[in-house]
Structure formats: C-alpha cells, structure tokens
Target: FAD-linked oxidoreductase
Amino acid sequence: MESTAFSEQAQVQPRRLWRNWSRSQSCQPRAFWVPTDEHELSNQLTRDKRPVRVVGAGHSFSPLVPTDNIILNMACFRGLVSVDHGRQIVTVKAGTPLSQLTTWLFEHGLALHNQGDIDTQTIAGAVSTGTHGTGITLGCLSEAVVGLRLVTAQGDILNCSEIENSALFRAAKVSLGSLGIFTELRLQVVPAYRLKEHVQLVPLSDLIEQIDSLKTQHRHVEFFAFPFADIAILKTLDFSSDAITALEDKSLSENAILRMACEASRWMPKLNPRIQKLVGRFVKDEQRVGYAHQIFPSPRNVRFNEMEYQVAAVDGPSCLEQIIQIMQSRKFNVFFPIEYRYVAGDQTPLSPFYGGDKASISVHQYYKQDYHPLFAAIEPIFHRYKGRPHWGKLHSLDSTQLRARYPEWDTFMSFRNLMDPDCRLLNPYSKRLLLG
Model:
C-alpha cells in the first residue's frame, strides 16, 4: 500500500493545553500530531526529528505524557482490523478505547480474558503501562498480547511476535512508549462469558485474616478498605451460567454520594471517621449476573489521584495492615478507600508483575486535596516490601531504584538504547525513570 502524501497543515494541530483525567498533569506542547494511518505516522517521524510523546486517553496519573515538544494523538487508530474465530485472536488498532473494544468483541461472541474496572483507556495505553484487573490466576492486560506492530523513532514499521522480532516483542509489551509507537495489537481472546458479582460489606479486620484463602476461592476478589471505620466493601466475581439480571446503572447516585462525602471530609476533617462509617448504610449485600464487559467496568466520575504498588502476594496483608496503621496514627484526611487486588505473575521485563504473583495495593486522594503528604507517608512501606509501582500511577522512584527491583532491567534498556538512541520518544519524566 502506497503512503498518502504528508500534509503538515492537515495533520498537525496548533499549540493548546493538554491535561490528564485527574488534572494533576498538564502541558502545552508545540503541536499535536494526529496521523490518519501508519504510513503517515512513519512519514512524520522521518521528516520531523523533534521529540514525541504518544497519548492515549490521558488516564495515567504519572507524568508520562507532558512535553514541551510534540504530543502524538492516536485518535484515528481505532477499530477491529480482523477477527480469527478459530484461533480466538483479534487484531485491533492501538488507539481503540477498551469500552469500544469489549463491545465489538461481544458482538463477535468473544471477550478479553480479564480487565480492570475502568474501561476508558486505549488498548495501547493500558497494555504498555501494565494495567490490570484482579485474579490470582490472571495476568495483566499485556499477557493477552500475542503480536504487535510498532513504528520506531526512525519511522520503520515492525511486526513483533513470538516468531518475528521475538526478543523485542517480549520487551515491548510493557514499554511506556519508549521503544516505538504501537499501531496495532493482536490479542488472544476467549469466548464471551458471564460473571456473577457479589458485593457485601464486611469487617476489615476479619477480611484481612480471610483474604489469603478468599483469593483462591473466586476467579476475582478485591476489596475497598475504609481504615477509619474498620469496614470494607468486598467484591467477588465468578463464572456463571445463571440468567442475566437487570443491570441497574447506579453510577450517578454512587458518584454523587462519593463526591459529597469527599467534599464533607475535605471541609470538616474531624468528621471523616463518622462519614466513613456511614458507608455501611449505602452498601447492600447484592448479587448480579451479566456478561464480562458489562460487569467489569465501574464508571468513575469523581476525580482522584492514585499511587499503586505491587508487592509479593504473600506480603500483601501485612503491607496493608502497616498502611492502615500509618493512616490511622497520623489521622490523614482522606475519604477514598484503599483498593486491594491480586494479579498473576509474568515474565515481561518491565511488568510490575514480573517473576511472581502480586498483591496490588492502591491509595487514593480526592483531586481537590493535596496528595503529597499522604503518598509520601505511605510509600516507604511499599519500599520496605520491595514493591514495584504501577507505571501509570504516582510514585517517586528513579532509574537507580527501579533497576534494583527489575531483574531484567538491563535487558530492557539494551532494547531502548537500540530502538531510540537519540531519546526522541522520552520526556523529562521518562528520562528520569529509565536513564537516571
């Protein structure tokens, strides 16, 4: 296929403000590139040698995108390219939002093996940052990738899989946009399936004692802990052949209650424990059944900032207890609960789940409140357990600290140096992460 003529006027948008979802990151780049296809992207990278950072849905909390140079928007790269029902493999364009992808898959009788509770991210953004759902036997989203196409900083177009450019493929799956720009991803999918969701309120102290056994009793188990009230919202998901139940949309009322609680806590910190205890009045013991793409997502309209670390699964409960102790002893003014999940290990060099099963622990702060004091107090606990941060969440580690936590750090860096020797695909933040 011949490349279309390059038109800078048509494909480059003028300087304007970019902000992420939580409003914690922003920049005003020199221009936005919006290529319409792979060859146009290749031409742009070949002709213009300025640094470029690719943006997905802007749902990362860490400063992976902000740059004074060029932001590359992949909005035109959306859609299913092919569906192989026999092998259960689909090829999807990199800028496709997860919500659209899962809907299209369902129309073909297919589904992702797992996903998180937010589905607004693009598939490329979610894969390249190690985004995940929950399940001790289920890996992060990058584990579903069986092949990809990327455009290098020099404009070359490469196919990568276990057969073609296999070593690069292994490194590229979780690469923060630093090895090249994904244009297509091939995903191993599964037949569409139903899940039964069970939500209940339980005493937090009891749940921490039981969680080690619960993680193997259910396909998915996660909970949201309110440390100032000693309660938690426990959610389990399991395969089901039961009839579909009415899937009532409670997001408007739930988000309204959450917003009011956060505002009340922000202005009246002394009431925070009492407000957390009121959660019990709004959480009912409920079950519902639906297809996976209907059950997994939980609309999030109340903005927040987040820090998340992965620690060895066996260390999860004790790490959580220490976090709770710090929050209680220092009386931090935070209403948002702590989120606790399990994720299966993998062998991708820069995956936070490399080498073994992990407990994933997330701490949140309402976006109108300063998250720095809370996160600074909690992060040393994660360091104590040699935790690895979620690449899309806030943390303070640099390349020296990260190198000590990733056994194949040097393997990855050899590919980074080879693929982008001039560091065109890095911004100041990713340079600190990867280069020091």
